[in-house]
Write a structure and sequence with these properties.
By secondary structure, the protein is α/β, with parallel strands linked by helices. 23% of the residues lie in helices and 26% in strands.
Length: 286
C-alpha cells in the first residue's frame, strides 16, 4: 500500500449530522484538516420539519469546523474557492452540484453512495436494495461528475442486511462504519491521481422515490417480501405518498415495523403467502 497522504484541506458537503460527525472524525484521524461542513439553508429543503437529530447549530455541530449554509447550488463554487480545498467529500445532499464547483478541489470531488453502482443510482438506494430482495447493502465512494452517481469508482464494500434490523437507526451505523473504513483507500488513490474504475452502463438502474404501486401491502406475498417492503418505506425519506398501508382488524393503518420471527412480546401475527409475519408497530391513517 502506498504511503497515506496527510495534511489535506477537506470540505464535507452533507445534510445528515450523525454522518457528518463520523466523516469529520475519520478525516481528522487520518491526519487531515476538516476545514468546513457545507449544508443547504433550511428553506431550500421544502420547509421540511427539523430532522430527528435536531437542527445543526454552532452548539450542536462538531467543534473546530466552519459551518457554511449555502443559499443555492450556484453559490457552492464561490464558497469552495474561498476555502481552497484539496478534496471535497459529499454524502447525502439534495442538490445536483455544478461541475464548476466539482472542479475546484486539487485532488477531486468524491461522493459516497450506498449502492452497488451502477445499480441503484438515485436518492434512496437502501430502500431499493430491500425492495429487490438483496442480501447485502453496498458502500461506494466514487468521483463526482456532472450527472448523479455516475462517476468512476474509487472504493466499494458490502454490508450484510440483517433480518432483525428494521429502521435506519439500526441499519445506518453499520453502513457508515464500513464506509469510513474505506476512506484511507480513497485518499490513497486520489493522491496517486488514480481516475478510478469507470462505471459500466450495463446493469444501471434508478432508485427513485417510492410510489403508489408499492404503497399497499399484499398479504399473499411472502413474509420476507412484506418485511422488506415495510423496511424499505421506513427509510424512504421524502417519498410521496407515504406507505406501506394495510387492513388490520378492519382498520387501515400504516405498518411501521415487522419481524420475521416471534419477538415473544405479544405482538400480533398475520398470515402471509408462505407463513406468518409479526406486526411490531403501526399508526392510524388520517
Amino acid at each position: 500500500m502506498a504511503e497515506q497522504p496527510t495534511g489535506w484541506r477537506v470540505v464535507l458537503i452533507a445534510i445528515v449530522q450523525p454522518i457528518a460527525e463520523e466523516v469529520i472524525s475519520a478525516v481528522r484521524g487520518m491526519g487531515h484538516d476538516a476545514v468546513a461542513w457545507l449544508l443547504p439553508r433550511r428553506p431550500h429543503l421544502k420547509d421540511s420539519p427539523p430532522p430527528p437529530w435536531g437542527e445543526t447549530t454552532d452548539k450542536s455541530a462538531p467543534q473546530d469546523v466552519n459551518i457554511i449554509l449555502a443559499r443555492s447550488k450556484e453559490e457552492i463554487g464561490p464558497l469552495l474557492r474561498g476555502l481552497e480545498p484539496d478534496v471535497v467529500l459529499c454524502w447525502g445532499f439534495p442538490w445536483k452540484i455544478p461541475q464548476d464547483a466539482l472542479d475546484i478541489p486539487r485532488y477531486g470531488s468524491v461522493n459516497h453512495h450506498p449502492a452497488a453502482l451502477p445499480r441503484h443510482r438515485g436518492p434512496i438506494p437502501l430502500s431499493w436494495a430491500l425492495r429487490e430482495g438483496d442480501t447485502e447493502f453496498y458502500s461506494t465512494w466514487h468521483r463526482m461528475d456532472a450527472e448523479l452517481d455516475t462517476g468512476a469508482i474509487l472504493a466499494q464494500k458490502t454490508i450484510p442486511i440483517l433480518d432483525e434490523e428494521t429502521t435506519i437507526w439500526e441499519m445506518g451505523p453499520r453502513v457508515v462504519q464500513a464506509s469510513v473504513e474505506l476512506l484511507p483507500r480513497v485518499f490513497e488513490r486520489l493522491a496517486a491521481g488514480d481516475p478510478g474504475e469507470p462505471q459500466a452502463e450495463e446493469g444501471a438502474s434508478w432508485a427513485g422515490f417510492l410510489e403508489e404501486d408499492y404503497a399497499a401491502i399484499d398479504w399473499s406475498q411472502t413474509s420476507r417480501e412484506i418485511h422488506n417492503q415495510v423496511r424499505a418505506w421506513s427509510i424512504a425519506f421524502q417519498s410521496e405518498p407515504e406507505g406501506p398501508f394495510a387492513e388490520l382488524d378492519g382498520e387501515r393503518v400504516k405498518v411501521k415495523r415487522t419481524s420475521l420471527a416471534d419477538p415473544g412480546d405479544g405482538s400480533p401475527a398475520h398470515e402471509t403467502g408462505d407463513g406468518r409475519i409479526w406486526i411490531l408497530e403501526t399508526e392510524p391513517t388520517s
